[in-house]
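3.2 Worked example (two chains)
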Amino acid sequence: MAQIAWIGAGVMGRPMAGHLAAHGHRVRIYNHHFEKLAGVEQEGMEPCRTIAQAVEGAEYVFVMVGYPRDVEEVFAGPGGIFECAAPGTLAVDMTTSSPELARRLWEQGKEKGIRVLDAPVSGGDRGARNASLSIMVGGEKADFEEVRPLLACMGTGLHYMGQAGSGQHTKAANQIAVAGATAAYTEALRYAQAAGLDPRAMLEAIGGGAAGSWQIANMAPRVLAGDFAPGFFIKHFIKDMKIIQDESTQRGVELPMLDTVCSLYEELARRGLENEGTQALIRYYEPEA
């Protein structure tokens, strides 16, 4: 069994780490707010107060934090992975982050003797809990093959996408598609309500046809239940879309649909809803209090 360090115990990170422990791997887990690690011993993991403590003796380090700045701090900051992990360690960043940063960390890791993969995921909190995530990986193919058995503890779709940064570029494409699908089912619900339709019956009718999607099957029912708890935070989706806008601008690519959806979520954040889940987009259409 592998000795693993896990950094980041949020909505998705903690259950993902738990799957590794459930498969018999030795997991030390660190979170910036130590109190969020309460109860991890019962899940088979050892809580740590520092990154240095978590990575001591680790063969593999997994990172699942919030923003690119957090990723950079965890890897390259004082007391971070590059400073504390042993040469030869394989570090896997599963945060949705910047492709440029992923490439830079890969290069810095090479100088330090630390192997780095970028491996963002799709599937939300449900995928994290059910170990059914899609995982998109950039970096050295041999490193991907080495860590594949560990990734298989967390996901059912394991995809090697190419050189460092390719995992993040793939996740960017994923988020563009998610933005469109989320806006589509939200406006379908809004129209159905205005037209006097039973929204549940409407979703059942269109979900089995050409309009069917993961978002309709998994997220639209949460909207109807009034459940806006974050499987994926609005603030993190805005972060993702901003990264995509930067990358697309550098390449001269216009993404008007993404720009529109981003502006809708920014308005929700302005209303103080940034800590709700992405399914709360329906609240954009409600009168502002």
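3.2.1 Second chain
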Amino acid sequence: MITFSAFTICQTKESAELLANEIEKIEPVPFGVGVFEIEDGSNSYEVGSYFYDQPNDIALSLLSSVFGNREFVVSEIPETDWVAHVKRELPPVNAGRFCVLGSHDADVVSDSKINLIIDAAMAFGTGHHATTKGCLCALEKIIVDGIEPKSIIDIGTGTAVLAMAAAKVWDQEIIATDIDKVAIETAKANVEFNQLQGKVKCIQAKGFDNHFVQQRAKYDLIMANILKGPLISLASEMTTLSKKNSTYAILSGILSSQVGILVAEYVQRGWICEDKITIGDWTTITLFLKL
């Protein structure tokens, strides 16, 4: 399966972050958007976005006109290139008690860690991105605090790394959903590789939009490492499907500049922000539903 990338350069961090926000709104919707400082002394920033379908050249050109950035460079990304990159350049990642390893490193698991072996293939969530690591660190804090959730769901599961982390800590079935078929296939393969069959149930669904997912509510731990736009769209339904005075939500895929807007959406529905973890330009937040 071929995916697509679209990259451009902005002269300021502010314009890059504003552009990243707007890219999330175009059709087809990107499955990942990032802002990165170019470390060449130019004080400029690269904005990268990734798509399952060919991005809309007209929409990208219009954004370039509005924000004054360079024209987007759109490229095809063959599946074989991504897998090779994972195997070549992604070493094990430690986050609290968890260690995330590629399947190519399965022979170097640590006896002192909870090992999560991931074959990333085409899905997001190898543990190397700041948002995934931030979620694992937030999960670590919940565990240390002695929280014992009874019903857990991972929205936008990608490789299922967060769902598997929860499944290795708490003795229950974790639900993992993703809108993308490839992600769910990858998640199922990772669940099997980590011998977690029967403990992680992978479902292709958009957010909570699935009969089984609705039946299993209400949830008292929700993890969602997606993007700001979908997180805002899910705020109302997430609140409805959560337990009052009981539910924690670990949310990521958020640029640090977007945190205030996102938190405000949830606060008005009865959530309070208990913690923030910032890694690079990305922030993971932990919310608690206090109604």
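3.3 Remarks
Residues 130-144 form the longest helix (15 residues).
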